[in-house]
Design brief:
Layout (H helix, E strand, L loop, with lengths): L11 H23 L1 H7 L8 H30 L1 H28 L4 E4 L2 E4 H30 L7 H27 L14 H20 L24 H33 L11 E4 L2 E4 H20 L7 H22 L2 H11 L2 H9 L7 H8 L5 H16 L7 H17 L8
Antiparallel strand pairs: 1-2, 3-4
Helix pairs in contact: 1-5, 1-6, 2-3, 3-4, 3-5, 3-13, 3-14, 4-5, 4-7, 5-6, 5-13, 6-9, 6-12, 8-9, 8-11, 8-12, 8-14, 8-15, 9-11, 10-11, 10-12, 10-15
């Protein structure tokens, strides 16, 4: 691969940088979701039977940013290039974390500042947190508009595009695996979720803001060259709509279902497990209510979330070595297994089977993205922005699941939503990803 000045460029440094940023995205995405249960205790004691609905709005606000800001990311790439877009996105993330801090501070300082919605009484600080969740989600969107196509296009000796995405995904999974332990073990010191207080939410966000400020400073000094043929030049008109590529359009729909089912399990499995725990279903936790690791006490529901994301890490590490297995084959095999385990989890009312689905979800993002941008050339960066629209599934599907859980007073049968999503991914793997009127 050559840079725009036609001189050979080493992309090893940029590759490592973007892999690290993928870690940041994964860590913050999952940490945001893991704040659901603590926030339900800290903020939502006055919402009555609507707790599941309000708590899943946190995930909804995060992923709502993807369809609304994906185009912003691709426009910034066209106008400013990859490096400046990354730096701008990180500044947006720091601002969003500041809103997280402010939401907790405001609630502590003004405990009687509330909004009455129907029968619910909700602190104003909760809505500030929702805004912060949207802003940090916008930052994660723009980061991924840069990271995904860059990892596909940058030439690193001895790797293929699907491998580089898998390596980036493995880094992302390290972040998602660490986040539940960070939230429950470090931030809250192993406290039971119902014992968490609002003031305990402040300092972790200040620490994350400081860390990201250091990352921005380092990024300013690093070289991150643009890659020829992956984006339109500023002012250049594209001959046709990116939506005219059928396999991309169906890929956006598929990523809607994939991110939706991935986040539903990762963020809601602990709520499902807590429900079973409260109803005395000790079978599902092998008789244990908590586990002590590294001197810290963790609840079994939090451990389930960690194991789910840990399964994704293991799967991505394995996938990073599968240079000769086509993305379509990888996607087909893993979605069949995910469908099987999801079905068994519903039939047996056993959340441990949902934990196992993480292993099979691991390679789906990379496979779907690779299949979606096949042959797009200079449309690739625009397609990456469009692709982010589908990530709104991470907002809608978990929220629908939370609403359904409130409506039917339980989580068990809500996992049928996940099952439907897996079946659509299988359709894309076998039929929808076939490129029409183009040479694959």
């Amino acid at each position: 691969m050559e840079a725009q000045n036609s001189k050979p460029v080493s992309y090893i440094g940029p590759f490592i940088t973007l892999v690290f940023l993928f870690f940041v995205v994964g860590f913050l995405t999952t940490a945001n979701g893991q704040f659901q249960a603590p926030l339900r205790s800290a903020f939502l004691s006055g919402v009555g039977d609507l707790k599941n609905t309000f708590v899943t709005l946190i995930t909804f606000s995060w992923f709502l940013a993807y369809p609304l800001t994906g185009k912003v990311g691709s426009d910034w790439v066209t106008k400013f290039g990859y490096k400046i877009t990354l730096i701008r996105a990180l500044f947006v993330m720091i601002f969003g974390l500041g809103l997280f801090f402010f939401s907790s501070w405001y609630t502590v300082q003004f405990p009687f500042s509330v909004v009455h919605l129907f029968s619910a009484t909700v602190p104003v600080g909760y809505f500030i947190f929702l805004l912060g969740s949207f802003v940090v989600g916008a930052s994660a969107t723009i980061l991924q508009v840069v990271i995904n196509p860059y990892l596909v296009a940058c030439s690193v000796k001895g790797t293929q595009s699907i491998q580089r995405l898998s390596i980036g995904g493995a880094s992302n999974s390290i972040g998602t695996t660490m986040a539940p332990f960070f939230v429950t073990g470090i931030v809250f010191g192993g406290l039971a979720m119902e014992d968490v207080r609002v003031e305990q939410l402040m300092m972790p966000f200040l620490a994350l803001m400081a860390i990201l400020a250091v990352v921005v400073g380092i990024l300013f000094k690093l070289s991150l060259p643009d890659i020829q043929g992956t984006k339109a030049e500023e002012g250049e008109l594209l001959e046709k709509s990116v939506w005219s590529f059928r396999h991309l359009t169906l890929g956006v729909i598929t990523i809607f279902f994939y991110v939706g089912v991935e986040v539903s399990i990762g963020n809601n499995i602990n709520l499902y497990a807590i429900e079973l725990q409260n109803t005395g279903n000790a079978f599902h936790f092998f008789g244990f209510d908590s586990l002590t690791l590294f001197g810290l006490n963790f609840s079994i529901p939090a451990l389930m979330a960690t194991l789910y994301w840990g399964g994704m890490l293991i799967g991505r590490l394995v996938a990073s070595s599968l240079s000769k297995v086509p993305p379509r084959v990888q996607l087909t095999v893993t979605v069949i297994m995910a469908t099987l385990f999801s079905t068994l989890a519903i039939l047996t009312n056993n959340p441990w089977l949902l934990v196992a689905v993480g292993l099979f979800h691991s390679i789906m993002w990379g496979a779907i993205f690779t299949l979606s941008v096949t042959g797009l050339g200079k449309y690739t960066s625009v397609a990456s922005g469009v692709f982010m629209i589908g990530v709104v599934g991470g907002a809608i599907i978990p929220l629908l699941q939370g609403v359904l859980a409130d409506a039917i007073h339980g989580w068990r049968w809500t996992w049928c939503i996940v099952l439907f999503g897996e079946l659509f991914i299988l359709y894309y793997a076998q039929i929808g990803s076939r490129v029409k009127k183009m040479v694959e």
